[in-house]
Amino acid sequence: MSSLVLLLIGLGTLVLVFNTKDEIHRITAMIGGTILLIWGLALAPLQFQLLIEIVSVLAAFSVCMRCLGCGFNRD
User: Fold this and answer.
1) At what angle do helices 46-68 and 23-43 cross, to 10 degrees?
2) DSSP readout, the chain?
3) What is the pTM of this model?
4) Residues in contact with 68: Cβ distance below 8 Å, sequence separation at least 6, in sequence order
5) Tens digit of pLDDT for each residue in 35-73?
6) Tens digits of per-residue pLDDT, 9-20?
7) Residue 74: Cβ-neighbour burial (10 angstroms; 0-12, 13-18, 19+)
8) Distance of alpha carbon 37 from alpha carbon 30, whole angstroms
9) Which of 36, 38, 35, 32 is nearest to 17 (CA)?
10) How far apart are CA 70 and CA 53, in angstroms?
11) Is residue 75 predicted with pLDDT exceeding 60?
12) Alpha-carbon span 29 to 13, nearest angstrom
């Protein structure tokens, strides 16, 4: 249960980042939200951790394939 609370607070803090205009508050909220997300993921059950890891690997793979042009010549 504590992992869910930390994840929600971390996500809420990261949403707050996009609504603030002051650079210092934005950087502080970004760092705090990231730390809370890491703590929440560390306390989460193993199945949830594996799901997040698989989704992030697939997202990174699709971005890398898009950057490489999926085998097309970019000249």
Assistant:
1) 130
2) -HHHHHHHHHHHHHHHHHH---HHHHHHHHHHHHHHHHHHHHHS-HHHHHHHHHHHHHHHHHHHHHHHTTT----
3) 0.67
4) none
5) 998 999 899 899 988 998 899 888 887 776 666 665 555
6) 988 988 888 888
7) exposed
8) 11
9) 32
10) 23
11) no
12) 6
- Residue 67 corresponds to which amino acid? C
Q: Which tokens go with 44?
A: 């989460």
Long-range contacts of 8-13 (CB under 8 A, 24+ apart): 8/40, 9/36, 9/40, 10/34, 10/35, 10/36, 10/37, 10/39, 10/40, 11/37
How many residues does the structure list for the chain? 75
Structure tokens belonging to residue 73: 């010549």
Amino acid at 15: V
